[in-house]
Write a structure and sequence with these properties.
Layout: H1 2-6, H2 13-25, H3 28-35, H4 39-53, E1 58-61, E2 64-67, H5 69-96, E3 101-107, H6 115-126, E4 130-136, H7 139-148, E5 153-157, E6 166-173, E7 176-181, H8 195-198, E8 203-205, H9 211-222, E9 231-233, H10 237-246, E10 250-254, H11 255-259, E11 264-266, E12 277-283, H12 290-319
Parallel strand pairs: 3-4, 3-5, 8-9, 8-10
Antiparallel strand pairs: 1-2, 5-12, 6-12, 7-10, 7-11
């Protein structure tokens, strides 16, 4: 019966605070002072709790009060309840400020090796209790996950068209460049290799129905060339890199993936018609969570740094007389 009475609304949080204050202070007078209320309010509140429980919680002594056996049990549980409420309030505060929670981000090639990892590192340094979940996939798959609410945002090359419920924000420019392993036979020449010269080598192409695949096909079509007959179609970065460094394949990759890898080299062959904007894609119909907003701050900061780095590479290429695309 007492348990039912505890849950019918008569015992309130203020009663738990009051009882623990009496236990801490040892007298009703000091408990009232610590809570900034009057002693009659403390006396009335204590009586209300004891009436609900049907037992005395404190034994009145000449110089104060001490918990009864019933009081010891109730006070211990009251402290636990108050501690849980304080913890819940702190977690809500951390969630509101982006210091705790989970952000789920999708990525595909561009941005996955520098922009996103650097942004995550900065975010975790600032908010170590925030969890970041990274999911890889093709751009069309990531768009569907974003629309379904399974992702907070995606990072990668921006598409010329996105569903009306999505919006894009450009963070920096990153050219798509042809890449091969260090020591690849094609790197021995003194002049830039044309696409026609490169067709003889094996290639790695993006899978069908991706924007980069369509753009590469357009480059070959514009040059009047067929697609390389010896090719692998792959979107796995781990598989792609292993093939690149262990065979003579050629691949089209975001520039910073190769620049940051000592075993890969950029080929001078330009792909000037391939788009190069990298950024984030977000849903229009829902505001970013505090955790997603915190990650966006770091993505924008790292995007600005990479934009400056891209300008430096562009300037260096022009100084060297290399056509930079």
């Amino acid at each position: 019966m007492a348990t039912d009475r505890l849950l019918d609304g008569r015992v309130k949080i203020r009663h738990l605070v009051l009882v623990t204050a009496i236990a801490d202070e040892g007298t009703l007078v000091r408990a009232a002072a610590s809570l900034h209320i009057t002693q009659p309010v403390v006396t009335r509140g204590l009586r209300e709790v004891e009436e609900v429980l049907g037992v005395p919680l404190f034994e009145r002594m000449p110089r104060g009060v001490k918990p009864t056996p019933y009081g010891h049990v109730f006070i211990e549980r009251a402290r636990s309840v108050l501690a849980e409420l304080r913890a819940a309030g702190e977690e809500v505060r951390l969630l509101q400020s982006g210091q705790m929670g989970t952000v789920t981000v999708g990525t595909h090639l561009a941005g996955s090796n520098l922009l996103l990892p650097r942004a995550i590192a900065g975010l975790k340094a600032e908010h170590p209790r925030l969890t970041v979940v990274v999911r890889e996939g093709t751009p069309d798959t990531l768009q569907q996950l974003l629309l379904a609410g399974d992702l907070d945002l995606t990072v990668g090359r921006l598409s010329p068209t996105v569903p009306v419920r999505l919006e894009q924000e450009r963070l920096h420019q990153e050219p798509i460049r042809l890449v091969a392993r260090a020591g690849h036979p094609v790197l021995g020449g003194a002049k830039a290799n044309s696409l026609a010269e490169l067709i003889a080598y094996p290639w790695i192409f993006p899978v069908a129905q991706t924007a980069l695949r369509a753009e590469l096909e357009a480059v070959f079509f514009h040059e009047g060339l067929p697609l390389p007959p010896d090719r692998v179609e792959c979107t796995s970065m781990l598989t792609l890199r292993t093939l690149l460094i262990s065979t003579d394949v050629i691949a089209a990759l975001p520039m910073f993936i190769a620049v940051d890898d000592r075993e890969l080299r950029l080929l001078p062959t330009p792909l000037s018609s391939v788009r190069r904007s990298v950024g984030v894609t977000l849903p229009k119909d829902r505001a970013p969570s505090p955790a997603a907003s915190a990650l966006l701050v770091h993505l924008r900061e790292e995007g600005a740094r990479l934009a400056e780095l891209e300008r430096e590479y562009s300037h260096a290429a022009l100084q060297a007389g290399v056509r930079y695309a």
